[in-house]
Amino acid sequence: NSYYKPQRFIDFYLSSYYEMKQYEDEDFSVLLGMELRHYATANDYLVYGVEPDWLRQQGNLLALSERKMYRLMHQEGHLVYQAHPFRPFIRRCNPKYVDGIEIYNGKTDRMRNYKALNWAAKHRKLTISGSDFHKENHLARGGIITETKITNNRELLSVLQSQKFEIIKTY
Asked: CA-to-CA distance for 90 and 82, rounded, in angstroms?
């Protein structure tokens, strides 16, 4: 039955990306990103630098351990961040297996975001901000502002690694 084939899920995942690509112009770029949760855990990971062709060639990324996912992503030059690490039921990942930490999340309260900031600093990790946009009232409650125009993954990864951006936060 083709319904349960991983390719069907990947095609569904990529369909929104391709739909948004039609709105690109010289002032608006659409890049593919990924939020990934392994089986049997509540932890979410943000992965930057992913391309559709690469994603189609992968097996079930949800079945990988933290360590195996990190190694796979690094083989391709992708960056891996733990998302909202102080939300309830989340366990902090092994800092050896992430490049960065989401230190501000638009759906997470101030104290938990502050703990994430301190944890990232303690482990000398890159930082990022995200809106966690699932409902209209989550729009633009997080993200980054750059002075550099970002039009592709190479440019995005460079900005993320340099940390030359302003964190958007709504408090």
From this structure: 10
